Every structure is written in C-alpha cells, then in structure tokens.
Here is the input.
Amino acid sequence: MEKQIVLLPGDGIGTEVIQAAKEVLTTIAEEFNHTFTFSTHDIGGTSIDKNGTPLPNETVEACKKADAVLLGAVGGPKWDNNPSHLRPEKGLLGIRKELGLFANLRPVKGFSQLLHASPLKEEVVKGSDLLIVRELTGGLYFGTPSERQNDGQSVVDTLAYTREEIERIVDNAFKCAQRRRKHLTSVDKANVLESSKLWREVVEEKKGDYPDVTVEHMLVDATAMKLITAPTQFDVIVTENMFGDILSDEASVLTGSLGMLPSASLRDDSFGLYEPVHGSAPDIAGQGVANPLAMILSTALMLKHSFELDKESKLVESAVQAVLEEGYHTADLNLLGEGKKVNTDTMTKLIVDFIKAQSTSKV
Ligand code: IPM
Ligand code: MN
Here is the structure.
C-alpha cells in the first residue's frame, strides 16, 4: 500500500514525539511492504516565528493532497500574549476547519499498570473504556462575530449549529457505538440552550436508524459528575465542541496518564488528522524525555481509520502494551512496582524492536 503522510510537529515536545511516530511507521512499512512517504510542514508557534502565521497556506495545501496527517502539539508560553490571530491554537483550529474534520474521536481506556495512578479509587475506574465523539468544527469555537463590540465594552460568543452539522456527528457517533458496546450517551444542556434542544431532537430522530444501539440523554453538568463517580457506565459519548473539549480533558485523567491518550479527527471519507491529547509540554521540551506513546497510539488510529490496516494497527497497540508490561516507562508515567525509566529514543526503540520481532515471528 502506498500512502502520503504529512507530519506537523508544531511546538515543544511535538517535534520529539513526531520523530518517534515516523520511526514506528517506517518500521511498519518495512515489515509489511508498504510505502509511506512523509513530508513535514509548519504549524503553531514555530510557524508564527518562521512565517508570521500559525497556519501557512502551503501547510493547508500539503495536507489536502495527503492521505493522512499526524500532528504533534501546538502552543507555549512564548506566544501566550500574542493577539488572537497570532496564537498557535489558531493554527490547530484552522487546520481542523480547512480540512472539514468534524468528528473528533477521543478514546479513553486504561492500562492496568497505570490505574493505581488515577485520581479515582481503582475500584471506581477499573474497567473504564469509553469513547468521546466531539463535534469539532462548529459551536462556540467558530461563532461570529468574534471581535469585541461597543468599543470593546461588550462581547458575544455565538453557539451556532445547523441541523446538518448535528446530524453528521450524531450519525458518526451511532456508527462508533455499533462497533463497540452499543450504548450512546448524548450530552447537552437542553434545559437551557436552544442549540441543545435541536441536538436532542436530532438524536431522537436518528435513533430509529440504529435500533441495536441504546441511547440516553444526559445534561453536561451531570455528565461531568458521572464521569468521576461512575466512569464505567459510559460507552460512547457524543457532544458539541466546547462540552467535548471540557469533558475529554476530565476523562483523560481517569486512567492515570494523559501521556497515553491518542485522538483522531475525521470526516466522512478515510482522510484524518491524528494527534495526542496531551499538549506541547514546554517545561520538558528539547530534553529527549517526552513520552511518545500517545503519539505512537495515534499512528495506530491512523493505520486503522485512514488506511484500514487493522493488523498493523493492532501490532502497534500490542507493542505499547508489551513495553509497559515489561516495566518500561518515561518520566511522566507512574508505573506499578519497580519500573525501568527510559527516554524518548529508548522507548521508541523498544516499540520498534517489538514490532520487528513480532512481524518476523509471524512470517
Ligand atoms: C484540544 C485543545 C484545543 C481545543 C485548543 C488548543 C485550541 O484544547 O485539542 O482539546 O480546545 O480544541
Ligand atoms: Mn482541549
């Protein structure tokens, strides 16, 4: 199989974890006779410094021609006081919008070696395995007008959705639920917001098309509470952009490490952008100690969703599982028992070696 992959390292540890992902994918290509070609482009704060914009046209065009995109992370204190059009985050929001990536999938599943580091009691979090499907190109993030009104004395942020935008994300979430444990929780604030009432109506209309999926509606405040009191009761959660942003950060710490969580941003074709849920970690950037596993697990999502390479995807996931079982961890992970602390390069090499060993032993 031949695929063109765009790499967007971005800022901070983005560069280091993207390099790890490239090494893993190169190994997969060699072992399974695929041809993956990579090209690297600018985004975020480093792009502001270099090109005067967080998202150059050249980057957008390169992504549009590619089969899939891997993104490291954007942001850092250096650009915190920039005006809003010169913020690294604008690059990320812009690329999602330009590429039409409306469905953000954020799976949260614990590794048993890390559960003891969860802020929740192990018996509460044990067995949690949920997927947040977050709408990514609408709502408050893209409301207009976005500038201040009345000489800067008032502001307005608009939560706008069309029926069609809600339908496509709800369909996507129902399909995800069909491939999992067939339970969908639709999260809204229908006791207050008009946009949520339309959201609820659409879910009610759509549920007849997916009779094998059970659906419940839950208010966003109650969901925030249930996520920490009874996380195992969730399978797939679908919600609008801002609610999804907040709930996915809450859910990301349930399993004991943010450094392990991948994400996929998709549309209706096979194209997708894949990135770790964690940020650019400027405090440890450039030291070679970043945890590359969330980025590596993001490549597994890419192999599965964009390239339909299920065997290769599972092998990458088993490699991550195996190195943790052997006790290896980066500095951010608090592993049970006596762990073997390694840096980014060594962790990547362990994954690569596992993939090589497994794929040869199966020939
Ligand atoms: C995320 C991030 C972004 C978002 C920021 C960096 C704009 O928090 O991917 O969740 O809010 O979508
Ligand atoms: Mn976020």
Remarks:
- The first strand starts at residue 2 and ends at 10.
- The pocket of 3-isopropylmalic acid (ligand 1) is lined by residues 89, 92-93, 245 (CB under 6 Å).
- The chain has a mean pLDDT of 96.
- The CA atoms of residues 329 and 341 lie 5 Å apart.
